[in-house]
Amino acid sequence: MAWNHLPSEIFDMILQGADLETIKNVRLVNKVTAQRCLSPRFLSCASHIKTDLTEQSLWKVIERTAHPIFSRAVRYLTVLAVCYDHRGKHVLFEKHLTTRGYWNPLNWRRRYGLFYQTPRATYNLEWLQQQQASRDAVSDQFIIQVLTSALDSFIELKQINLQAQVMTSPNERWSPYTVLAPVILPWASHVCYLVLAAVAKGESTVPEINIYTAYERDSKPARFPSPNEVYCGVSIEKLSHYLDKINDGVEVRLPFGSMNVCLATERQAQFKQEPGWLQTGYASFLSVFSGSVAGESPRDDLSGLMRLLKATPHLQGLKIEFDHEDLATRNEFRGIFTSVANQASFRQLKECTLIRLPITPAALLRFLEAHRDLINLTLKYLSVSSDSLWDPIFRFVGAEMTDLRWCTIDHLYHGDARIPLDRENFSKNYCPRRAYLPVEFANNGGPDVYFIFLPNDHNVPMPPS
Questions:
Q1: Beta carbons within 8 Å of 266's beta carbon, 6+ residues apart
Q2: Are 1 and 81 contained in the same domain?
Q3: Do residues 169 and 41 both lie within one domain?
């Protein structure tokens, strides 16, 4: 039969996007085909599973969980926090009109200065509303139960990824954008709670989680205008509330050895534009998990990051990124990292990355002193008040963190003024005894300071005064 003579690459490509039911039917063709569906090469193509938490998607996860072979093939689980933008002609872009006409993915066209709705736009809007209704019908309890069962069954699982997307039609997805931020950020935080609850309530030992630190490429071609994107992360104001909700106030324990987390603040996503569409189109959706749209939500508690880190005592790798827009916001949230520096300590931590996180020099120095055995340290887009100094931190990094092998420092600020840094002066002033590889970047495209330090036995003598 033709199936028997297909090259392995073509056979795997055909079935790579098939669901479990289709694969079962293909296996019934003959013994040769059945065996090829269980080959290590094919199973490697089935190592990644996604769910957007709709009922149909969750049932596919259940099917994979129940299979004795394909459940063991899963290595990566991606949970999508999807928002469906069904706001009609206001969707996605500010009015970007061209002389030829259409300006957005829902095919609203301009003729003699008037908008009219195309049949495709009607279909897309109906699909978006149906998807929204389908997702709203799924209870949190059912989602947590399915994810807990799946995580316990995927015994070879290596990584959980949380990603946020906006759908504007069945075939068009976008990275989160500004105008829909009042919907995206609360839902993304709620999805994070569902995943953490599933991990905490089960027996999974998955070693790594990425919480909104990566996005898939947008599906639209470059000829379409791009919307203003917004960082999507876990709401720092609601994170503590959700951690309380997992075990009814009892502290949770999570198995992660590596965690990358992007934080956001709902104070930057207040309902500044078009409150009408938010109230009429998304009020019922938001009220399910975040109180009313008017803002009746759990009290703000900025200890969520500290509590999340204390729940993962075995961390070896940590990346924290925080979205903020202005100096006022930055000053308001400096206490977040201070509580982390005062209370969190990870004996096994070897890699740490801090990006845009509001800090004070004293808190950062305390954190580094507690984790002086770091091997890899990255500090990017950090700012201290104009009357503070970076020098104590630089001296500690250069002289005291002797196990450090990779060090990246880029875009550090005094207030809003960027500090001029370069590798040669940094080495001369703060780590003159340490040898490093002279790595160069093309077209000056690298960070301000980047070191690959050599082991201690390569230390160089102190230069003569």
A1: 182, 185, 186, 235, 237, 238
A2: no
A3: no
Residue 140 has pLDDT above 60, yes or no: yes
134, 180 contact by CB (below 8 A)? no
Give the C-alpha separation, 382 to 411, whole Å: 7
Residues 20, 146 share a domain: no
Do residues 144 and 32 share a domain? no
What tokens does 378 get? 């990255």
Return the bridge partners of 383, or none. 413
Is the pLDDT at 365 greater than 50? The verdict is yes
Provide the whole-model pTM.
Answer: 0.82
- Give residue 403's identity as a one-letter amino acid code: D
Domain span at residue 7 reads: 1-46
For 103-133, write each residue's pLDDT tens digit: 444 444 444 344 445 566 677 778 888 888 8
Q: With contact defined as beta carbons under 8 Å apart, do 372 and 403 qualify? A: yes
> Tokens 């928002």 map to which residue?
83
* Residue 8, domain member (yes or no): yes
Q: Is there a domain that residue 129 lies in?
A: no
107 part of a folded domain: no
Please state, in angstroms and rounded to a whole number, the distance separating the CA atoms of residues 386 and 366. 20
The answer to whether the CB of 433 falls within 8 A of the CB of 439 is: no
* 136, 284 contact by CB (below 8 A): yes
Helix axes 55-66, 20-27, angle to 10 degrees: 40
Q: What is the pLDDT of residue 86?
A: 73
Please give the tally of structural domains in the chain: 2
The answer to whether residue 359 is domain-embedded is yes
CA 363 to the chain's CA centroid: 25
Residue with tokens 């299979």: 67
Phi, psi of 73 (to 5 degrees): -85, -15
